[in-house]
Amino acid sequence: MATGPVTPHGPRRRLTDLRAKSQPRHDPERLTTHSRTVYETVAQIQERIATAGTIATHPSFWFQVRCAALLHDAGKIAEGFQRQLEPGGPLWGERHEVLSLAYVDLLAAAGGWSDTGRRMIATLVASHHRPLHAPSSLGGGKPSLSRLYNAHTCWQEAFTTTPGPRGPVVQVPRGLHGEFLAWLAGFLTVDPPLPAPDAPSLAERARTLLTEVLTAWQQPVKPHAGLLAVLAQGALTFADHAGSAHQRLQTHMPLLPDFLHRLPHRPHSHQRDAEATDGHLVLAAPTGSGKTEAGLAWAARQLATMPGRPRLVWTLPYRASLNATRRRFAAILEPAPGEGHADIGLLHGAVARTLLAEAAQDDCAPSAEAARKAKARAAAMRLFTQRVRVATPYQLLVGALAGPAHSCVLLEQANALFVLDELHAYDPHTIGRLCAAMRLWERLGSRFAVLSATLAPPLLEMIEESVEHPVTLRQAPPGTAPVRHRLVVDEAPLARPESIDRLRSWLGEGHSVLVVTNTVATAQALFDALAEEARAAASGDPDTALLLHSRFKNRDRDVLERALLRRHPERAPGQERRPGGLVVATQAVEVSLQIDLDRGAVENAPIEAVAQRAGRVNRRGRHPDGPVEFRVHATESHRPYEQGAVQAAWQALTTLTAEGTDTLSEQDIDRLLELAYDTAWGKQWAEAARAARDDFTADFLSFTDPFHDRSEYAKALSERFDTIEVLHRDDTGEYRHLTIDQDGDPLLASGLLIPLRYGQLTTYNATYDRRLGIHVIDGEYDTELGLRPPSEPETIL
Q1: Nearest to residue 749, comparing CAs of 355, 425, 400?
Q2: What is the dihedral of CA 599, 601, 607, 612, to 10 degrees?
């Protein structure tokens, strides 16, 4: 417990009076407690990552991180900082991490640290909140230490004796300093340095060491050294965040080594092949043939041959598939003792990342803002503790931004397993960046598996040439999945009256019908045209007609996904007729949603998307009628896809049918991929993917200036993914309450967000709210149709 209010006018401050935080308000955390907690958290991180990959080349890596963890907040001993923590306390105006450098300097000789070790520990301590150097251009980030402390700094006034309204303030009294130094030395099991009459002051030591650190990292360094430095920075900031949030890293792995043998059925041969694979894997298997179980079996195999406690990160392209996969893993994987279901992490959207970035900021007086930051940090760090996580690739690639806010995301990618599910769903630029990430993961001692039902030959070539280690290709044998579809290629667009009449007739016959369009607007229009008739054909269920696309608030979309899975689950063996119904969707329905409908009518799209849409119709070939009709309609516009991709798909489909094929078997899909990519567009696709891979490596993964401010890269990276989450103007009050008010829940705020493309911000009259840190949009919104553009204002003629 606290000994009482900290006051500059009371008894002399002792070691047990020093605080590191302003929270909890009734007993703020002591500096020694926080330092010890962060030090011990480094040990947990080390147990997880061990000496995987490039870390193995630096034997002192973890020792230096531990020393930095112990000393990172030593500068909070300053009277100015302690007063800042008091209720209503004045801002100190100096950086505690700079004064911490004095203690690094003091203990370096006693600890027997080498010059390079001393410099690295000092670098980590100095950079755990702010960049060392400013960017090449003004990027809008926080001021770097080199801008704050330079030739104009009055060091003695800053860190020795500071003028105050009631007289000079001694920042570090001699007695308190000796007591703290002895505690630090004892923790490091070394003798405390003896005071010397001519020894430099703490301010002089801080100035000298900061100058040395700034000089060392001012010019570009070798990529290997830069990467190691970022990983070490990530280890320290991760430990600082987790220690501040009092979150322990999970040790239980929900994926057991004998996962495949626990399945209630005999595994397929491709699942057994995946389980037998050591190292990187590419698996091609039809939709509904157990790719997910095969990926888990591969990961279970790797766990036994990797050091430490590896994590499994499962990436998927769409939010719908993320939520569904998390629920599925929670149900089929092994819970920790005493828990009802497996604890699976889920990280998507910008909220958690933003919270973590905010949590990296300094502590201050015990205000509502400080409490909110503490809560935000706890919520965000909770997402980093699980050993199995589901995420989008963007959440991983953002680690390339490094710095205090992102380097821990990069560190998390060391000694990890990555499963890239449905890789085909990305555009060539994203695939190129992911191939660049695969190369980096390999350097970090990690392994990856790529799972797909539609693996184009150029994609496999890209993966193989991007990494050093072998990549094993496993394919499901022919006949793994039965023929499920009668393919019809229709020249009439889906929105034509005759096409809509056919859908009505299917609904009238009691079928469940899947309609997939390329744009949200077309999906909304078709849903409007068909929903009432679907409900009339199968009355009594409010979910008879469902619309799913990306322009829903995240929380509404979660409700829709659950309704969709409940209404149209996979058909059981021998199951006869099922209730009819209508599902209109965009590409949001293409991956990982295990739904099963009787008939399908879709717009032509890139050939992988067409094949994935078919995988949601008669999914396992169990329909009592045998192969069912799957109709691909021509489109009047290629948007939102590349024109060449849509044209290549149409050319492949019409060629296939001209060759006399009227089914869509596994071999037929392979033939379609071969035809589509053997075009001018296919060659351009491969060139674009390789260029994106090489550009991303050069721009983001070189780490030659690891401690320069890279905040300007954050916007560039986000724009390259062309996706942004926005807030509807009507939800501003609720979002503000959830993210800012003390009794809010910041992570729940993500349920209000809607994904858009950057290019659509203008359409929705987007404005940027600096207070909330998010774009706010106009538009018409309801829970059935989702977001539509705002109505045009009336024109007075």
Answers
A1: 355
A2: -40
Q: Are 129 and 704 in contact (CB under 8 A)?
A: no
Inter-residue contact 565 to 593 (CB < 8 Å): yes
Total Cβ atoms within 10 A of residue 651: 16
What secondary structure does DSSP assign to 228-274, as a single string?
Answer: HHHHHHHHHHHHHHHHHHT-PPP---SS-TTGGGGSSSPPPHHHHHH
Q: Percent of the chain, pLDDT > 90?
A: 67
Single-letter amino acid, residue 56 = A
Classify 280 as helix, strand or coil.
Answer: strand
DSSP letter at 417?
E
Residue 476 near residue 704, CB atoms below 8 Å: no
In the structure, how many helices (H) and strands (E) does the chain have?
A: 28, 21
Neighbours of 140 (CB within 10 A): 11
Nearest in space to 77 (alpha carbons), one of 54, 58, 94: 94
Q: Phi and psi dihedrals of 774, rounded to 5?
A: -155, 155
pLDDT digits (tens, 9 = 90+) for 701-743: 999 999 998 777 776 777 766 678 899 999 999 998 887 776 6
Q: Which of 125-139, 277-291, 368-382 has the highest mean pLDDT?
A: 277-291
Please give the pLDDT value at position 355. 46
- How many CA atoms within 13 Å lie on the side-chain side of 427? 14
What whole-number distance in Å separates Cα of residue 43 and Cα of residue 62?
A: 8
Backbone φ, ψ for residue 16 (5° rounding): -70, -10
Identify which of 750, 775, 30 has the alpha carbon closest to the alpha carbon of residue 379: 750
| CA distance linking residue 393 with residue 420, whole number of Å | 8
Please state, as a whole number, how many other Cβ atoms lie within 10 Å of the Cβ of residue 508: 13
**Rounded average pLDDT over 284-294:** 89
Residue 426's identity, in one-letter code, is Y
Q: How confident is the model at residue 371 (pLDDT cuts 50, 70, 90)?
A: low
Residues counted in the chain: 797
- Nearest-angstrom CA–CA distance, 304 and 291: 21
Is 455 in contact with 270 (CB distance < 8 Å)? Answer: no
CA dist 674 and 652 (Å) reads: 8
The three-state DSSP-derived secondary structure of 700-739 is HCCCCCCCECCHHHHHHHHHHHCCEEEEEHHHHHHHHHHH
Helix axes 680-700, 643-658, angle to 10 degrees: 140
Considering 54-68, 307-321, 382-396, 700-714, the range whose residues carry the highest mean pLDDT is 54-68
For residue 223, whether the previous peptide bond is cis, meaning omega lies within 30 degrees of 0, is no
Reading the block at residue 131, the tokens are: 């960049």
What is the chain's Cα-based Rg?
A: 29
- What six digits make up the tokens of 119? 């410099």
Residue 381 pLDDT > 60? no
Q: Residue 721 is which amino acid?
A: F
d(CA 120, CA 388): 32
Burial code of 21-43, b = ≥16 C-beta within 10 A, e = fewer? bbbeeeebbbbbbbbbbbbebbe
Helix (H, G, I), strand (E, B) or coil at 649: helix
pLDDT at 351: 44
Residues 757, 763: contact at Cβ < 8 Å? no
What's the pLDDT at 110?
93
Q: What is the mean pLDDT of the chain?
A: 89
Rounded-to-integer distance, Cα 356 and Cα 385, Å: 13
CA distance 450 to 461: 13
C-alpha count within 13 angstroms, C-beta hemisphere, residue 711: 19
Using a cut of 0.90, tell me whether the model's pTM lies above it: no
Q: Are strands 416-421 and 447-452 parallel, antiparallel or unpaired?
A: parallel
Helices (H), 402-510: 403-411, 428-443, 457-466, 497-508
Helix ranges (DSSP H) in 339-402: 351-359, 368-382, 393-397
- Three-state secondary structure along 10-48? CCCCCHHHCECCCCCCCCCCEHHHHHHHHHHHHHHHHHH
Say how far apart CA 529 and CA 120 lie, in whole Å.
65
